[in-house]
Design goal:
21% strand; two-stranded antiparallel ribbon; alpha/beta; 8-stranded mixed β-sheet
């Protein structure tokens, strides 16, 4: 018995196709379901004891806010890490360390009143104020190092030893004195002063800032050391120059025995081998008063800042330009004209600036004839 395809009363009006679209307006698409704030538990989850039939899901705005917060936390952590790295990368660098000042230089030539005495180096030293001076670096003695308010004893000692190293390299190294070397001195300087130092070596000028002989002792090629054992005597002191700097002052007199690299034509040895004036040695005296400054970075890196250099050197002519090299008058030579009052480079104490001085007679050796 075949069933009827349509109900006895026929198809209802207004519902074509038998009414299958009656609930189309309330059927939800996939995007609507995914955006729902509530989600029904699965059949397996409903078997467990639960007081609620649905769970709450985070809103898209909430998920977006969580992502932004996470990125913000990561950014802050990266910034903090960078700051910590920069802060500890060089722990010796003080926040208050300031750029090194240019070196100020005063060079005073000392002219002799008569001919420069000549003779054997040993005799010259024995009959001069340098007779009791020590030889070389042993003449640069250090005072006892004591801690200060802001620096330890070891830091104070580092400042003193660095200043001594500078004096040794710039006043006693034969390669610096007569060979033209500059690196042993340069490596001991704060980088902020290297440009001034290099210009002083390459293009010296008598301007108070670029005088090569204010940084180091240097003689022209026509002069050599008659005795490599330079005589030295002086003092050193150290004080605090603020909470982040030490200041060292050195005051030393150096006595050099010099002679001509090539004797003059008129100078020939006599029959006994004794030297005439052209072959004799003579003494040249240099007094150097230097002021060093050390910040904490300088102490850590074993280098120095030079604040001031006051130099008296003679015998030499006042008119000679000694900005590149000192210009010694050697045995038998003299100068003309009168210089100001006598100046004794062996007399330590407060130095006074002048354009030129007269080398005191007591500062000249008196070797036996």
């Amino acid at each position: 018995m075949a069933g009827r395809a349509d109900p006895p009363e026929g198809t209802p009006e207004g519902l074509p196709g038998g009414g299958e679209d009656e609930y189309r307006s309330v059927v939800f698409d996939e995007s609507f379901v995914k955006a729902a704030r509530l989600q029904e538990f699965s059949a397996q989850e409903r078997m467990a004891e639960r007081t609620r039939a649905v769970r709450s899901l985070p809103s898209p705005a909430s998920r977006s806010g969580s992502t932004v917060a996470l990125l913000l936390v990561l950014l802050i952590a990266a910034l903090l890490g960078t700051a910590v790295y920069l802060g500890v990368r060089d722990p010796s660098r003080s926040a208050s360390a300031k750029r090194a000042e240019p070196l100020r230089i005063t060079l005073i030539p000392l002219a002799p009143r008569g001919p420069v005495p000549g003779g054997d180096p040993a005799d010259l030293y024995a009959h001069s104020p340098a007779a009791r001076f020590r030889v070389g670096a042993s003449g640069i003695t250090l005072p006892g190092a004591q801690r200060t308010e802001n620096f330890s004893e070891s830091q104070v000692m580092t400042a003193l030893t660095t200043a001594k190293d500078y004096l040794v390299e710039s006043s006693l190294d034969p390669e610096v004195l007569t060979g033209g070397a500059v690196r042993p001195v340069r490596i001991l300087l704060d980088p902020d002063q290297l440009e001034q130092f290099d210009r002083s070596m390459n293009a010296p000028a008598a301007d108070g800032y670029h005088v090569a002989t204010g940084w180091l002792v240097r003689y022209p090629a026509a002069v050599v050391l008659a005795d490599p054992e330079v005589r030295v005597r002086g003092t050193m002191s150290v004080v605090e120059a603020g909470p982040d700097a030490l200041e060292v002052t050195s005051d030393h007199t150096f006595a050099y025995a010099l002679r001509r690299a090539t004797p003059a034509r008129s100078g020939t040895p006599d029959a006994t081998g004794a030297a005439s004036g052209a072959w004799q040695a003579s003494l040249f005296t240099v007094r150097r008063e230097l002021t060093f400054r050390f910040d904490r970075d300088d102490l850590h890196r074993h280098r120095a800042e030079l604040l001031a250099s006051y130099v008296q050197a003679g015998p030499q002519r006042c008119a000679d330009d000694a900005s590149r090299t000192l210009r010694p008058l050697l045995a038998g030579e003299r100068t003309t004209g009168r210089a100001p009052a006598d100046t004794d480079p062996y007399s330590l104490g407060e130095a006074t600036a002048a354009l030129c001085g007269s080398l005191a007679s007591d500062a000249q050796p008196t070797p036996p004839r």
